[in-house]
Amino acid sequence: xxxxxxxxxxxxxxxxxxxxxxxxxxxxxxxxxxxxxxxxxxxxxxxxxxxxxxxxxxxxxxxxxxxxxxxxxxxxxxxxxxxxxxxxxxxxxxxxxxxxxxxxxxxxxxxxxxxxxxxxxxxxxxxxxxxxxxxxxxxxxxxxxxxxxxxxxxxxxxxxxxxxxxxxxxxxxxxxxxxxxxxxxxxxxxxxxxxxxxxxxxxxxxxxxxxxxxxxxxxxxxxxxxxxxxxxxx
Length: 234
Prior knowledge:
The protein has 2 domains: 1-77 and 153-166 and 185-234, Rossmann fold (3-Layer(aba) Sandwich); 85-152, no CATH class. Helix content is 38%, strand content 26%. It is built from 10 helices and 10 strands. It has helices spanning 40-47, 70-76, 93-100, 107-120, 122-126, 137-149, 167-182, 194-200, 218-222, 225-231, and strands at residues 2-11, 14-24, 29-33, 55-60, 63-64, 78-81, 155-159, 186-190, 203-208, 211-216. A 6-stranded mixed β-sheet has the order 6-7-8-3-9-10, sandwiched between helices. A 4-stranded antiparallel β-sheet has the order 2-1-4-5, with helices on one face. The longest helix has 16 residues, at 167-182. The protein is globular and about 45 Å long.
């Protein structure tokens, strides 16, 4: 589905991505784990053309999207739910969801997907006309994911969806990520909570200082002593 080949990204004099290679298979949850500064968020931004790539290619469903603009990449079916939620605080829950569908013209499809988002996140339905800035952190995260789903992605990329959330809310978020995959939307997940991410992942990559150092099935990496020592505190 998504193929990243030899991608390099520089921030000034910093070589942030050093020739990374990754594959996101269709019908899968793929996780990208690593310490802060490893290049995880930069990887997602490079896919979305939010940072300049100096080398390498990115293809999606066989189509070269390396030099495409962000808007066109969204049209192709890749959507990023950014770190920090970034909901529109002065808009209601419903208005935030409408913003997620801004590139779509299919009114019936938008209505159907809004109902689906409310099924996934019943609390959003309850707070439909509440301003997003007054929601709790967990509710804002649910809204951010719901807004991303309103763009009708084929591939949903989530950047740190559990950051700063209570354990019970984190459990809900990861349960919903599995439901999203089961609905036919592929997921590429960046997550500091490596254990939770690996438990639900079909495949995962480990990044260190802009390089992919390990890859394998989520359960295999979960049981790998090097991963346990470095990221699971075991």
